[in-house]
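Example 3.2
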Amino acid sequence: MAEECKSPRGPIGSNKLRVDATAVVGGIALAFGLFAGSPASATLALTPDGIADGFVLSTFATTNPGNNGCCSGPFGLGVNSAGNVVVGTGSGPLYVFKDVDGQTPATALFTQTTNTFVGAYTASGGTVYGAVNNGNYVSFNLDGTVANADVFPTLAGEAYLGMWTNPVTGHILSNSALGLIDIDPATGNFFVITSGTGDGVSVSPDGKTAYSEQGSINGYTIAPNGAQVFSAGGFSGPDGTGVISGGLFNGDIIVNDNFGNISLLDPITKLSTVIASGGTRGDYTQVDTNNGSLLLDYSDIVARLTCPNCSFKPPVPEPTTWAMMVIGFAGLGFLGYRRAKVRPAIG
């Protein structure tokens, strides 16, 4: 996260510096990372550890070839109800791509112009939402045009930076001028999880914990005034995250950073391993709901990280599983009814 660089408008720049005391040291390191510069050239690739762990890394789209700094290039990412990927590149082109690797501006299904600057996107119920330069939340049509320029009026002027959708509730988790908030997209109602400001956001597969980059990666119980339940530091310029579901790395956290690295964080030991390096300035991430891979922003590309025998979205129970659950509950209810019928009268 680049505090001064990524702030979409003046008041937010000062507001974002009101980070919890526990994140101050991380914030200083983060600011240093920004102004120390990004890699002059970049070839993002898995490290030997990443290869040994079975991860697969590919380039989903090259949108800004040759770009390696802040703050242009891809930021907003979301998969719409047509299964296509919306990629916003700040105050400039917005592309809608097929969900196939190797995309370029020339292969875009639709190209629009937006003023989302460094705002993140997310999708809930098949609708892609984003934060625009005036601080409003917007929703997008399937072709990337703006459907509603102020979709959550009670939050007008408050939106900026990271967004993620809770896979259980469908609510949108967003870093805002109010702090990390939980928005019900059906009603626009929201509550504040924590007033501490942050950047990249993700949510655990069980829908109970929100992770916010605040110099370190901090986890909060998703509830009004949620308790902080996790914190891990030691990263240079951390930003977007994603939580793995299933497999050997179940519950581990992927951390994308401003120095072109991807790290795998063990939430128990809080030890991290660099599984990819050599990229340009990394930023947000977003789950690809079509296939469970993780899309990661860089100054020039959107990368795709595929998890070995696991996913970045929780598994959906098979229809047979649901049927067995219904039968099981019905059976328990019938047994309870029979017991009530045969229980002898007292007295």
